[in-house]
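It would be a great kindness if you could assist me with a short task in structural biology. The matter concerns a single protein, recorded as an amino acid sequence and a row of backbone structure tokens. Kindly check, if you would, that the fold set down in the tokens agrees with what the sequence suggests. Thank you for your consideration; the sequence and its tokens are set out here:
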Amino acid sequence: MNKIHHTAIICSNYKISKKFYTHVLGLEIIREEYRQERQSYKLDLALNGDYIIELFSFPNPPKRPSRPEACGLRHLAFEVDDLEKIIAHCKSYNVIAEPIRIDEFTNKRFTFIADPDNLPIEFYEK
């Protein structure tokens, strides 16, 4: 294996999640298509030119618990240079970060926000 190719996310409200991932997180749109036969959007997103997320919408997707510590995908983590800068950016979109914590093994700082479907998003300072 070389690296993780992408992560697929199914959202409950495509318009809201598209805005979150493109405006709040700043991911770039590579391709967007509507698949009539599935009544589903598929949005391919990149970070710094690298394809990383497929955002899907489907009619009435079932809820999947993410907290407290549910089995399955725990969170997405993004490396950042400046934690305060990303926290302020998120706050400007009314997305509030948890208090900054310190990783007990690396002594690096990190925090979490949640996407519109409550999927935890971690920002881990470089």
About this structure: The chain has two domains: 1-62, 63-126.
